[in-house]
């Protein structure tokens, strides 16, 4: 097979169906950009889980005088010094506990003022209305239930809260958004495949006389099909290259510059460039093989060779 002939036929085919080729390029670019974005989102969620789950605490909030009047869990009154001492001793004996930190009412009031000083409620609060608490760092964040079972309902304990539960809600939201992106990607991919099949059909129909002559002179089936397959593959590869560009530009402007989320959201450990670069070859290979295979199977039906 002469490479020059195949290349010339690819050029002719792309120019002849320029509008449909453009539609294929755009649809492939958008679908694979969403595909790459969903992979990066999964990596980002995993990175955030590893970072934040290692820092979450379990908080044991102790009853104060206000709770004794309004909270059924504190019906026996505010926590006593003996109860606080016993809770701390029991915590330190537990193998799942890494460290235990006590926060007094004054410290809790100070932290609240730092975080919510602008709130109208902050001006009406006093230190004696705040709750004392123990902040527990676990060896394994998944072992929260051990602490909850041991201390929930104990005299002097108002509640046991796990910060991991709050993070789980956030990660469920992020995962939901990720699956929505994947669903949109699947839809765009289906559109791209239909466009590829239609483009191949139109191209094969417009050149049916040429392919008929080639068949009469003894050209092999693969020799006849190759230009059509390569047309689809080249259009897909252009779309894949654009998708890679979208991901690189998106990472650059959203995280590093432009929105600069890495500077504005310093508490989030964002994925690095290595996470982006490792998916670019996959996107390029997919953008080449997917249209080529779609064209190959389409030709088996629409081009009798």
UniProtKB/TrEMBL annotation:
It comes from the Bacteria. Residues 184-301 form the ABC3 transporter permease C-terminal domain. It is found in: Cell membrane. The chain crosses the membrane at residues 21-41, 179-200, 221-254, 279-299. Residues 56-160 form the FtsX extracellular domain. One of its GO terms (cellular component) is plasma membrane. GO terms for biological process: cell division. Its main location: membrane. It is a multi-pass membrane protein. Keywords: Cell cycle, Cell division, Cell membrane, Membrane, Transmembrane, Transmembrane helix. Belongs to the ABC-4 integral membrane protein family. FtsX subfamily. PANTHER family: CELL DIVISION PROTEIN FTSX. Part of the ABC transporter FtsEX involved in cellular division. Forms a membrane-associated complex with FtsE. This is Cell division protein FtsX. It comes from Streptomyces griseomycini.
